[in-house]
């Protein structure tokens, strides 16, 4: 199942690794500092410069496998590359491989009309604009998407969108020009046919970005996470994606690959955390011993390595299953990785913070921000409990049919 990576992917990986060393790690602090100055929601000139370099070097849209603009890599191949770029929180945007744009580009590629693709997908693939995905709402438990209350109502040649969203990643960015909004077009339809998805340009009258939200104090500029109001926003009927009542169908298509990409990146982030933990342990002495000679620290290092290996194998297996059997058939592997990888990588990063002492909690190291990132994914893209519940349903169904077979 786990093939050696092919020569083309290996060569891309080497180039990506070299690019990270030459241009990403050395600029992480400058990118953070620049983003903190006025205009924090703007793509800074340094970020634009690095994006242009990545593009020049063919390290652009690595995730994309739909057409000539993409690299045509399988999920399994991309896993090896995504792990490398996942080592830095600054990197995905530099390589145009960032959430939520990746998921939105997937939606537009698979479900968009030619006109929708031309207007929104092309500039997204070029990195000229950014997008957001507005599903979650403050007023309802949004882990159950059937609760979503935003209304998308037909009015002649238009749809009118009314509702309040939050945690809309990317909506703070000046470059964010379009939202994919999920909402109810028919509250009387069967439960999973009530919701639709529609493209709403951010400059539509009635769209208001109200405030940024932060994760443990981190606001993640330049994309940010926003509370957004759609106050009777009127858009042409051709902005509907796929068709009325087909929002769930699209959501399933979008979330599978998106979930696994997060896992792939977290493997890289946790790998870097182990490296940082070991380097720190080797360089500090307390009570007459190097930290790296202390049994407690050594146990932690061994545990981290073991757990990261398990997390990596789960991610690779899910990617392989998606390639071999399709995203739908691989849903259990994706769910298991989505539960396990953020939890384990979060624990690894937390242990690395501990070995760093006070420094680990500061912004002098990448660890505090990395911890916040992994913690978010135990809730984002579906909380752990929802995925466990889905797995339990399959498991119990299997047990039920075993029981029935025995009775016969
Ligand atoms: C940093 C960040 C970025 C995000 N980006 C986006 C985005 O771009 N677009 C977007 O639309 N949303 C986004 N989200 C929102 C995210 O997807 C939701 O927060 C998530 O789906 C949970 O919904 P909720 O917050 O309404 O929690 P609720 O639905 O209120 O759930 C609360 C808790 O209830 C428990 N629970 C729920 N169901 C079950 C169950 N079946 N069994 C047991 N326990 C259960 C879980 O512990 C869960 O965490 C983001 C969130 C964060 C933190």
TrEMBL record:
Residues 132-231 form the Acyl-CoA oxidase/dehydrogenase middle domain. Residues 10-128 form the Acyl-CoA dehydrogenase/oxidase N-terminal domain. Keywords: FAD, Flavoprotein, Oxidoreductase. It holds the Pfam family Acyl-CoA_dh_N. InterPro entries: Acyl-CoA_dehydrogenase, Acyl-CoA_Oxase/DH_mid-dom, Acyl-CoA_Oxase/DH_mid-dom_sf, AcylCo_DH-like_C, AcylCo_DH/oxidase_C, AcylCoA_DH/ox_N, AcylCoA_DH/ox_N_sf, AcylCoA_DH/oxidase_NM_dom_sf. It comes from the Bacteria. Gene3D superfamilies: Acyl-CoA dehydrogenase/oxidase, N-terminal domain, Butyryl-CoA Dehydrogenase, subunit A, domain 2, Butyryl-CoA Dehydrogenase, subunit A, domain 3. The keyword tRNA processing does not apply. Its cofactor is FAD. Residues 245-394 form the Acyl-CoA dehydrogenase/oxidase C-terminal domain. Belongs to the acyl-CoA dehydrogenase family. Homodimer. This is Acyl-CoA dehydrogenase family protein. It comes from Seohaeicola nanhaiensis.
């Amino acid at each position: 199942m786990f093939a050696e990576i092919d020569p083309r992917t290996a060569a891309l990986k080497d180039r990506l690794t070299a690019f990270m060393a030459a241009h990403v790690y050395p600029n992480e602090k400058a990118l953070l500092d620049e983003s903190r100055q006025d205009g924090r929601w703007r793509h800074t000139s340094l970020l634009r410069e690095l994006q242009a370099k990545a593009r020049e070097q063919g390290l652009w849209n690595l995730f994309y496998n739909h057409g000539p603009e993409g690299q045509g890599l399988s999920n399994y191949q991309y896993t090896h590359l995504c792990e490398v770029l996942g080592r830095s929180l600054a990197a995905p945007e530099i390589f145009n491989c960032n959430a939520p744009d990746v998921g939105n580009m997937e939606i537009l590629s698979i479900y968009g009309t030619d006109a929708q693709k031309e207007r929104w997908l092309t500039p997204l693939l070029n990195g000229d604009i950014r997008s957001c995905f507005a599903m979650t709402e403050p007023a309802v438990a949004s882990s159950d998407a059937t609760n979503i209350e935003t209304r998308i109502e037909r009015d002649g040649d238009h749809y009118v969108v009314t509702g309040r969203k939050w945690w809309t990643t990317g909506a703070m960015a000046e470059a964010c020009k379009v939202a994919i909004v999920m909402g109810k077009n028919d509250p009387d339809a069967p439960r999973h046919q009530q919701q639709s998805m529609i493209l709403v340009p951010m400059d539509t009258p009635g769209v208001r970005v109200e405030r940024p939200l932060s994760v443990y104090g981190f606001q993640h500029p330049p994309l940010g996470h926003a509370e957004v109001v759609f106050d009777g926003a009127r858009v042409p009927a051709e902005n509907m994606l796929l068709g009325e009542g087909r929002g769930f169908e699209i959501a399933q298509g979008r979330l599978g690959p998106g979930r696994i990409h997060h896992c792939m990146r977290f493997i890289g982030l946790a790998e870097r955390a182990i490296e940082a933990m070991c380097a720190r342990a080797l360089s500090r002495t307390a009570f007459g011993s190097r930290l790296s000679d202390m049994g407690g620290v050594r146990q932690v290092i061994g545990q981290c390595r073991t757990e990261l290996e398990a997390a990596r194998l789960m991610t690779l297996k899910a990617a392989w299953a998606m390639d071999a059997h399709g995203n739908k058939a691989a849903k259990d592997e994706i769910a298991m990785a989505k539960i396990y990888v953020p939890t384990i990588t979060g624990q690894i990063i937390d242990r690395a913070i501990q070995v760093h002492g006070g420094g680990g909690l500061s912004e002098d190291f990448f660890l505090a921000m990395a911890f916040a990132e992994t913690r978010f994914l135990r809730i984002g893209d579906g909380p752990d409990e929802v995925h466990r519940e889905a797995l339990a349903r399959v498991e119990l169904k299997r047990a039920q049919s075993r029981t029935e077979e025995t009775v016969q």
